[in-house]
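Appendix B. One record, verbatim.
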Amino acid sequence: MGMRCYNGFMENEPKRYTLDDILTRCTLADIIPRYTLDDLIQRQEALRINDNVSEIDERLEDLTEYLGRELTEDETSDILDIVDEYTPKGDDGNYLVELIPFNYAWEIYEAKKSIGKNI
């Protein structure tokens, strides 16, 4: 008959899958013999971090288009600090909602800069 879910799924379809993809097609019993649950969680976390970095890079690019110029390193750092400060976080330090729009962060940056307040 057919192969085990994990082997058939992964060997016959050689591409990168998220934990959600695997779990919708397999049970943990199919996966655990090959990887521990901790390994899967670490891989999912690494994918989430990569997605977040890509999202931030994309938003910074959108901001440079909005401004019509490149940001300096200091401006980029200050914008990221403002986004972090003004985006609500839970007790665990993770964001509760989507990041605030970077053009709003720029407006906050300019307002703080105009009154001489440290960012």
